[in-house]
Amino acid sequence: MNPLAAQMPALQVIVPMLMAPFVLLLPRGLSWAAAAAASLLAFGIAAQLTATVIDSGPVAYQMGSWPAPYGIELSVDALSALLLLVVTGASSLALVGGRASLAAAVGEDREHYFYAAWLLALAGLAGIAVSADAFNIFVFMEISSLASYVLVAGGPDRRALPAVFKYLIMGTVGATFYLIGIGLIYMMTGTLNLADMELRIAEVADKEPILAAAGFITVGLALKAAIFPLHVWLPNAYTYAPHIATAFLAACATKVSLYVLLRFDFFVFQQNLSGHAFQFAAYLMPLAILGILVGSGVAMFERNVKRLLAFSSVAQIGYIMLGASLVSIGGLTAATLHLFNHALAKGGLFLAIAALAPLAAGLRLKDMGGMARQAPWTFAAFVVAGLSLIGIPGTAGFVSKWYLVSAAMALGAPGIALIGVVVLGSLMAVVYVWRIVESACFGEPPENPARSAAVPRPLGAAIWTAALANVYFGIAPGLPLRLSSSAAATLLGHVPA
Amino acid sequence: MSAQQTILVAVALPLFGALGIALAARIGANFREAATLLTAAALAYCVWSLAPSLLEGARPAVSVAEVLPGIEIAFAVEPLGMLFAALASLLWIINSLYSVGYMRGNREPHQTRFYVMFAVSLAATIGIAFAANLFTLFLFYEALTFATYPLVAHKGDKSTVASARVYIGVLLTTSIGLFLPAIIWTYAAAGTTDFAAGGILEGKLHGPAVGLLLALFVLGIGKAAVMPVHRWLPAAMVAPTPVSALLHAVAVVKAGVFTVTKVIVYIFGIDYLFASPGTGWLVYAAAFTIIAASVVAFRQQNLKRLLAYSTVAQLSYVVMAAAILKPLAEIGAAIHIVAHAFGKITLFFAAGAIYTAAKKTELHELRGIGRRMPVTMAAFTIGALSMIGVPPTGGFVSKWYILAGAFEADNYVALFTIVASTALNAAYFLPIVYMAWFAPESGKPPPTHGEAPWPSVLALSLTAALTIAFFLFNGPVLELERQVVAAP
Amino acid sequence: MQVLGIYYYWVFAILLMIGFYAVIAKLNLVKKLIGLTLFQAAVFLLYIAMGKMEGGTAPIYGASAEAFSSPLPQVLILTAIVVGISTTALGLGIVVRIKEEYGSIQEDEIQEIDRR
Amino acid sequence: MTVLFGIFLLTLLLITAVAIVRARNLFVAVMLMGIASLLIAASFLLLDAADVALTEAAVGAGVSTVLFLSALSITSERERASSSRPLISLAVVTAAALIVIYSTFDKPRFGDPEAPVHSHVSPWYIEKTEEYMEIPNMVTAVLGSFRGYDTLGEVFVVLVAGIGVLFLLSGGPGFDSGKSPPPWAKAGLRHYLIPRVAGRLLIPFILLLGLYIQFHGEYGPGGGFQAGAIIAAAVILYALLEGEQNALKVLPRPVLIGLMAGGAILYGAVGVLGILMGGNFLDYSVLAADSVKGQQRGILLIEAGVGMTVTGVLLSIFHSFAARRR
Questions:
Q1: In D, which residues are within 8 Å of A155 by CB distance?
Q2: Which CATH fold would you assign to the domain C2-57+66-115?
Q3: Is B318 within 8 Å of B260 (Cβ atoms)?
Q4: What percent of chain B lies above the pLDDT cut of 90?
Q5: Where are the alpha helices (DSSP H) in B175-251?
Q6: Residues D183 and D325 in one domain
Q7: Which of A129, A267, D37, D133 has the most C-beta neighbours closer than 10 Å?
Q8: What ipTM score was computed for the predicted complex, to two decimals?
Q9: Residue A280 pLDDT exceeds 80
């Protein structure tokens, strides 16, 4: 066996992380290549880790060889493996395809800073996914957040700046809430290791500081994950970021916070807080439902294509939360699966927007006129990803909605209402996706001769990779399904029957 | 080639054909049309080659991929599907012939897109016909919706796009909002969505749930155009006539009623459904649709819209026949799919030929047109007679079986509906026929046109001939469809 | 001693509240960042207070020391302070660019300009 | 006595905080922030947190003040409109505070040696630092080795902030590539004799203090971060006295970026070396034949890395602000 195999959890984080300072030092021309190479390597490591997790179960790693509750432990299980695939995959695809688009948005004289920040965002997100230590998660959350602020601030429109400022304020408040939460837990348990915390929290589960901690952690992470109604930073940040960065962040940034939320609510609190299962469902389910309906509703009337898709993200986060709030194997499978599938769909859509935007005068719906003729292949891929977003069978989005509806059905009569919400949300998705399709197919092409010629080849390839992945995982969802059902079993294994 | 391979080839062939058509279009229009006809012929050969073994009782099946546990993409050929596929593939050849005349005669733009999407639509249709379970069927059902959207919106002007929006809006809304939940419910209750003789739901659902699920299915399958989800069908008439003819008289709408029939026969099982309370409403719903649509058709002034509402009514014949839940009626449902297809495609072809040759679309413009276009109007007359159900046309055969089934079930609502709608059909078709042949020609200056281009005329003559032939030689079809209701 | 112990937590809560108020209610972007800094400083106080042990000394081995206050919260807060100043620096960088692009660092004015 | 002093400090802190929020002049607010930081630092000292107190003083009263002032000199000093939605904000804030206060009802007794914080993980550190590392400062031991991965993360947080400010301020209308620096940037306080002489005298001592804190961190309070901040402060003082351009001549931009990246790389390289020598990432025991020596060597190296990055980033940020056209 490869001697490096045991080091994979650490390498997953430090490969992109250490490449970042090198990008600062390397000649300018090489920064994109270095970033893309590191990202692809990280994707390879994630694939390797996933294989290991599937073959032989979770992998643990002791940083600095210090034993678990004292040193920092990394651990990779099915849920983190799924997340790692999403994060590294989205980053690699966006980087490989996005060179030209980023150069245009950011400017070649400062793009090495941008690529360094990109790598650190990637390292931060991956670091959260592999970490098994509450405070370490905070540190990597801050790396990824600060780096994402830089990515968003790279947008060419000046409106990116107020957007990113709002993002920074809300993100920092969220992180600080999280810090208060783990501080209170630490005060009551004396530990920061998640597994240790779960054991030790049992004795003090009904004390006030733990209850307050659960509140602070949930609200803090909900801010970071843009769960309705704490999503207000998201639409503008996604709209004004460089298109490629939007594709990357939309695919995975909020998902990682959701992942931490799931970890805490199921691993740390679920077994221990009296009546917590009730609280989790009671508080998050209405928010999830409102998120689905309001997000989709706003998207239906939004005129800017990117903001439309951003509001759709608010709704999609609602689906993930809805699945999780059912607190059942089926619901959690649906939630984790949708985490994966939505990343595929939304990543593909934003990549396609990155390709179409230079051909259009702007990003309003009417600017999309004639896109279907101007870039038929790219637009076809956009439609495929859009169908996945709606949840049409044969695409990945369908599989997770299938699971979500099945899980809701298992609830009996109240489940019918939830199915109604999912169905209504999907129908609203039909409307907002179709508004784009219709204006692209039949809208008047604006009379603007200053359009650039064509979609760059690598970007086209990346878009089609994403689109085909949507189809592939819609027909053969074996891999994500296996990971997510295993993740659901692990998450629920911590809930008393 | 084994039967399994033949099935896969039949589904894939139109897709590759679409690619071939797109490539051939780069050489020239003639090559493109040749590729279309060639693909259509090859498809028909493939599909029809499956028929003999099926008559002997073979049921070839093939599985492609397992998407979820218990949910596969799989194909299986059974008599209903065989009939539908055979019908669609046969009429595609004739329709392609007609399209050549129509599209050239009217100098339509985007002809390559038209032929390519048409081939894709056919692939989806064959997929629906051969689907082995509800999931696969739904997959191709949605594919058909999307593939036909560019055909409906072909003209691309504002009002066309608006109509196309109604088309895709209604179809997607009903399928995602009702049909899909129904499928998931079925899966949750039965653990499978496979079509099986005698149904899969017996004993799995009880009481009003059966009626509710049936309602989800019938209204969710918007393509069957049972009121109130029929709105898309008149809206789709903005499409070029060949699209209306094949897709909205044959492939798409028939996919709808075919699916309804299949759900009733193979998912519920007719005996189970007959025994369950709260399922009788479907006959009333279909009956209402038949009468109401006929009345609306009676009031139309535009020929294509009249044909559209006539289609809505005729589709509900199939639904009503299936809902009578008696073997004879189920056979009637199956052969009405065929009989109506031959008759209605003839009528659309005629309407399109009139538009191509004379640019006329309104009923009052048709006075005396029989003298200028005798072949076309002769075919139109045959089609109209078939709609009414007059011998010697195919329409008579299927109505006969439906009536027999209604008698068997003592279903007087159905009996009354059939009689009343026959009268209404006669009331709106016969005046047109009379006017076309016997009324004096109007218009100044007097029109000088003759028949439409020969491929169109040839095509509509062929389908008119088929309408009559189906009255005379329906033996194999009946024999095949008896197997549907034979004891499992 | 217990009075002081309770007082630490109350000060933490009130300081948190003051900082948080400035973050949400103030329209000036620099003032928001100042509020954010106070907000974070309150949390530092929470951690350090819980690490204190009665009769302990700073966690550095010495001749006379027997009991030590816990080193772990101190380490965590060292990291958190650094994270905080990094956030502030980045935030100030954004504020400077906003001033240059919009000519204002008042949230309401910026929204007004964007609406135009 | 300690109790009274503690209560006095905290009360003063609250008063200062209210004054900060109410102050309409941002310059005043920033200066008050410095005072609040010093008050917090003093409170930390009372709570046995010498390292944190030093850091809070260096960061809160030093770095943070300099950054805010540099930003204010570009933006504006006055806060114009007051607050929006004060009532809603107050409600939200009060709710949060009530939850916090609620959470303190059932907490362990203050300073209780039996509290989980003191009884679970912490005794292990107190016991093992001696055994594994033979250094007196447990905070440095935990920071550098036991939880060295967090500190690695911290370095990269600083690095991102540096990258971010460089990225943001290397474009836009105020960007000046250095071709035509304003006159004050060249001169500084060169023409004012007394500050100049006093300053020049101070600088070597500050640098020395920085180096001392850098390398003495294993024995007393201090370490790479504090040292980096102090060394940066010395250079900033030099820039104020001699003009920003002259400071740039001593430490040009590429050198600063080199420091920034180099420190992070040094830290990472020590970790990777652990892997190459057969241990896990950041396992310093394998760096030398004797594992205690290895730990000490590792901590020394990573502290150096921290110091480099912090110095580089702080100076880069300072120069980025200073170079803006205003």
A1: none
A2: Helix Hairpins (1.10.287)
A3: yes
A4: 21
A5: 180-190, 208-220, 232-235, 241-246
A6: yes
A7: A129
A8: 0.87
A9: no
